[in-house]
Amino acid sequence: MNQCGMLSGLLRYRCTAEIFQRCGGGWMKPSSRALSSSTGLKVPVRLSSSSSYMKEMYLAWQGDHNSVHESWDTYFRNIHGSRPSGEASERRPSTLLQGRALSHSLDTTQKVVEDHLAVHSLIRAYQIRGHHVAQLDPLGILEADLDSFVPSDLITTIDKLGFYGLNESDLDRSFQLPSTTFIGGQESMLPLREIIHRLEISYCGHVGVEFMFINNVEQCQWIRQKFESPGVMQFTKAEKRTLLARLIRSTRFEDFLARKWSSEKRFGLEGCEVLIPALKTIIDKSSAGGIDSVIMGMPHRGRLNVLANVIRKDLNQIFCQFDPNLEAADEGSGDVKYHLGMYHERINRETDKNITLSLMANPSHLEAVDPVVQGKTKAEQFYRGDRAGKKVMSILMHGDAAFAGQGVVYETFHLSELPSYTTHGTIHVVVNNQIGFTTDPRVARSSPYPTDVARVVNAPIFHVNADDPEAVMYVCLVAAEWRSVFNKDVVIDLVCYRRFGHNEMDEPIFTQPLMYKQIRQQEHVLKKYSRKLIAEGAVTLQEFEEEIAKYDKICEEAYTSSKDEKILHIRHWLDSPWPEFFTSTGEPQSMSCPPTGLDEEVLQHIGRTASSVPLQDFKVHPGLSRILRSRADLVTSRQLDWALGEYMAFGSLLKDGVHVRLSGQDVERGTFSHRHHVLHHQEVDKQTCVPMNHLWPNQAPYTVCNSSLSEYGVLGFELGFAMANPNALILWEAQFGDFHNTAQCIIDQFISSGQAKWVRNNGIVLLLPHGMEGMGPEHSSARPERFLQMNVRLTQLHDSNWIMVNCTTPANYCHVLRRQILLPFRKPLIIFTPKSLLRHPEARSSFDDLTEGTTFRRLIADDGLANRCPGDVKRIIFCTGKVFYDLTKERKLHHMENDVIIIRLEQISPFPFDLVRVELDKYPNAELVWCQEEHKNMGYYDYVRPRFLAVVANRKPIWYVGRDPAAAPATGNKSTHINELKRFMETAFNLSTFHGRNI
């Protein structure tokens, strides 16, 4: 009998009993009914040895030849001497002989089956663990997975065949290939020797593929086909020449910088020069697939080379950055050349299509740019209507130590498939130096590979030896196609080395002597690859040398012209230009702000929508129905609470075509259950309604989205989103203001200083719930002192690095949100939002405070009884935020409305010098007090003190009232909190025995 047919029949029979269908990493046992229908067997199945399987099947066959698969029918006929079944019955051998024949046949068959199954297991072992023995390290001294142990189920020597019950004599036997491999090409059977050979080519060469953890059969099969099909990793002569030319540019650029500026830090790409042709291959392949905008982020290593040879920034602009005498033409501090970004539109020469390339500026916080890139990519996709990411994509480059060590990488990965944050697949390229600054990877990470974090989202990981340019190119082509087909993240791990130290001035041999002895002997990849192509006849030595000379000449000419540059224009390095927003000189189109008030009819319309359910037969929770009725009552009485004030701001901007996006933890409902911008059907799962999107027929879209439990990643994402379009209101809300501290890197490096370093304007709004309500140190303070300390001490909005407000009325909150968009320039806006004031009966506004002619009030003066006789006022208390309502309550309790004036600073920074001066001049006989609920070493004290002194010009003292200095921002004891509040409230109004402190 044909061995293949016999095996097929036996395997088909065994699957009816106990075969587990492989789905990526899991197993699924089919039902008995499904098994019966799929195999055609009509006999009962017992989970026993293969011999009992066949005996039972044989007995069934004797009763009915059609009860078994045709291959088994043939097999049993052969047992009976190839006679028809009738003859076999008439000339049946003795029972003893029949048993011996059957037993012998069954033993032989069982061995055949087990051998085939062993080969199938061998194939799967290579697919799962082949990358562990792949030849990935160009230096040949380290294992990419930090472990030199060879898995026992991988065949690397003949003696290990015994693991599978095979021996050397089996190497030339042919075996049936499973449907889960493509190594046979068009062949269904191969000798074991050839099977092992092809598996080693596919999985143990210069490419190691991690993908078997993916729980999607289609995706696993797609990857298998790309790497197992015979002859896939082949290139034409023209493709090899292009690859060589790109490698020449990458290598000679670094050589040129080293010759001209040998003592400068360049953070060059030496040791991973293949990164440049790799990126260009990804871009070419993506461009051919329809992508016309690529947004990239990367650390500093290789940035200048990427700017020069991928983005194609003018070389003279790069070289002039090395001139120490270059004067800055633009305001701001600027940044080092290997932190800057670039935006460039050009023709892709390989596809003859227009493409826009943007490299985002990034500080030395290596992975901080990751979510920023994703946010900007998402924004471009959103505004272009690119719902599937077929036009805009992102590429992120990483270092191996940072990729494994920095948590924002994990946070960014976990945004990759969330509906409101996905960019439909990012290609990650890890420049794997196999070392951190001076830290060996064996003490820098606990995972085998630096890329293991990508496994959490089932992203395939392609490890590749960076000294094999063709293997790198093939992996890049597969990665670009994967992203296009599946719209999922993919990781390319370029296992390379760092030819010099962390920077060119550093001596790495102090800490890695063996590695750097090998590196100094290591032949450059350009030499190795050029020699290979010359030997193949793909290029001649003369052509190779001419290509080098051609690029060297380009660099020399650019160097000469760079000397003519006397002024540094940072605006030439913008990664997110807004050409329609500025004049040709980069200045705002205007310096006036239109009114922020609204028409009464607009207010009423928004109010009615905010207090209703726009969809019919949409059942909301009874408690929410009561909230909506309360809103309706407020609208009827022409009143606003905090939630309605926000609704008015968002709704009116949507009417004017301004996209509004609110993101953060639990923002759809609101942490304090006040917002309810997304209504949930109480009886239909996943059915929701966003009333804000039902305000006007042709309104802009409103996006409100609960984020993952991340601050660093999500705030970076929203920052990037805000970079794409100045005519959109992008807001991020912290669950509690205190929680922004885990996103401090984004605040410090991008929001506070972004314009100074990179001339990067941004209008992002941070909503930070703040207030001392006795909720403990983690739910009280949004740390205003930190923002104030970083604020540029100027008086004009346009000159400030950000704007800080602490509104006390819903109307003022609405005005400042509208002003954020109506201003002719963009600055980040930090709003310390309330918690208890969300429902405070005194924290209400009238529609009159929002109607036409009204505007944002930087300072709210006291219009009470004392204002009638200003000469009799004995004390002016300046404050900001929630403490105002505590002060007014205390003043009323002491019947001091005629003696004490309470003035609110709604805009803290820039400081309202002009309005404060007016108020002080109004009450010449009053003593001055600054009151805050925060501790003296926190809050606003250090910021307002010198400004008040500047206004009063030392004519009178100013007293401090508030909590004493403390290490924690608030007490966690309710009784202590109440006593603290009572103590400083009494101090604020005790005129006869004042215990304040002179500031």
Automatic annotation (TrEMBL):
- Enzyme Commission number(s) from the entry: 1.2.4.2
Q: Cofactors per UniProt? A: Mg(2+); thiamine diphosphate
Localization terms from the record: Mitochondrion; Nucleus
Entry-linked Pfam families: 2-oxogl_dehyd_N, E1_dh, OxoGdeHyase_C, Transket_pyr
Q: Where does the signal sequence lie?
A: none
Q: List GO molecular-function terms, semicolon-separated.
A: metal ion binding; oxoglutarate dehydrogenase (succinyl-transferring) activity; thiamine pyrophosphate binding
Q: Which domain of life is it from?
A: Eukaryota
Catalytic reactions of this protein: N(6)-[(R)-lipoyl]-L-lysyl-[protein] + 2-oxoglutarate + H(+) = N(6)-[(R)-S(8)-succinyldihydrolipoyl]-L-lysyl-[protein] + CO2
Q: Name one GO biological process term.
A: glycolytic process
Assigned keywords, A-Z: Calcium, Glycolysis, Isopeptide bond, Magnesium, Metal-binding, Mitochondrion, Nucleus, Oxidoreductase, Thiamine pyrophosphate, Transit peptide, Ubl conjugation
Q: Which family does it belong to?
A: Belongs to the alpha-ketoglutarate dehydrogenase family.
> What is the designated name of this protein?
2-oxoglutarate dehydrogenase complex component E1
Q: What species is this protein from?
A: Gouania willdenowi
Provide the taxonomic classification.
Eukaryota, Metazoa, Chordata, Craniata, Vertebrata
